[in-house]
Design goal:
The protein is of the alpha+beta class and 340 residues long. It contains eight helices and 18 strands. Strand 6 (185-189) and strand 7 form a beta hairpin. Helix 4 runs antiparallel to helix 5.
């Protein structure tokens, strides 16, 4: 639950009125717990949807009523306590701003029941989502570049602030980070945060899968949200770290990586390295945006090693079927595989 003081700071942050000190408090709060980011996302979404669609007169009417109620409450507290304590003022101020947001939202849904396709809604958050089978290249406000993989979502502030560059990732992305010693580059992926200044690294953090951070150049610090008192793991070139939430140890495991494999997907190369049948199916589905159905089980072992450079799906299946003995049929986005 968000306390009233941070509610006030969030509201001022969304409206662009937060002081530098309040912005710093907001950043500390947003980084302290992944749930805080979720709460902020909800408030930001409501605020951005409502602020551009409700007239100024409607906003003034709502705010005027709120101010009257606050004044009445203020008067009652003065009579009751003979003086107004600072925390009461903070709470009242926070309530005013949050009530304003949700009241304006109420007016929006009351007066504008359908979406207005002609109005451009500016957003404090940028959210980039790739459906399965699609990749994209994103240029961030600081000059950094992100390659976002299939079935992945990246969210970040439209304009980074003066002390931190914060992003949230679900799925996979390769980051080419512009160096800025005064503003750490922090990527939050579930319970793991990766911090860098200027470097190149890959994060694979798909839902219900183990997360892997792979460092190509520079250095990064990888830490668990549950272990904030600890420094985390510092990676150097060629190193990686793996975190499996289903592992009983709940710890970061150092691993070695193949830099060519890490870089390959963003350059259009599908690399299968010691891939099991389930891993192969998962990668093909994400790469081509298809659904693969195995009618039966292979008779032998399945351990694929190969590189496919911008190949059509049919060419990949032809190569695999020749090596591993199966027939396949392609019907739109569905592929049936039957082992011999």
């Amino acid at each position: 639950m968000i306390n009233t003081q941070i509610e006030s700071i969030i509201s001022r942050y969304l409206s662009g009125e937060a002081t530098p000190a309040e912005q710093d408090d907001f950043r500390k709060w947003i980084l302290s717990d992944a749930r805080n980011r979720e709460e902020f996302d909800k408030l930001a979404s409501i605020y951005q949807q409502t602020k551009s669609r409700v007239s100024a007169s409607q906003k003034e009417r709502v705010l005027g009523k709120l101010q009257d109620k606050i004044a009445q409450s203020d008067s009652r507290n003065i009579h009751r306590h003979h003086r107004h304590t600072p925390w009461v003022k903070i709470a009242l101020g926070a309530a005013a701003v949050l009530l304003a947001i949700f009241s304006v939202g109420y007016l929006y849904f009351l007066n504008y029941p359908g979406p207005d396709s002609n109005s451009a809604v500016a957003s404090a958050l940028m959210i980039k989502t790739n459906p399965i089978g699609q990749k994209s290249k994103i240029f961030l406000p600081d000059g950094s570049i992100v390659w976002l993989n299939s079935a992945s979502t990246l969210s970040y502030e439209k304009e980074f602030n003066d002390s931190i560059r914060y992003l949230k990732l679900e799925g996979e992305a390769f980051f080419e980070v512009q160096k800025d010693a005064s503003r750490p580059f922090v990527v939050q992926s579930g319970q793991v945060s990766t911090t860098a200044l200027g470097t190149a690294f890959n994060i694979q953090a798909y839902h219900n899968e183990a997360m892997v951070v792979s460092l190509v150049r520079g250095s990064v610090n990888v830490a668990l949200e549950s272990q904030k008192s600890e420094r985390g793991v510092v990676l150097t070139q060629g190193q990686g770290v793996r975190y499996d939430p289903d592992d009983a140890n709940k710890s970061l495991q150092m691993i070695s990586i193949d830099i060519l494999s890490v870089n390959s997907w963003k350059d259009g190369q599908l690399r299968l390295k010691n891939a099991s049948l389930p891993n192969t199916i998962t990668m093909l589905q994400r790469w081509y945006g298809i659904e693969i159905h195995c009618i039966n089980e292979p008779s032998g072992s399945w351990n694929v090693n190969g590189t496919f450079d911008n190949e059509y799906l049919e060419n990949v299946l032809n190569a695999l079927s020749f090596s591993y003995g199966f027939d396949y049929t392609i019907n739109g986005k569905n592929v049936d595989i039957k082992f011999k």
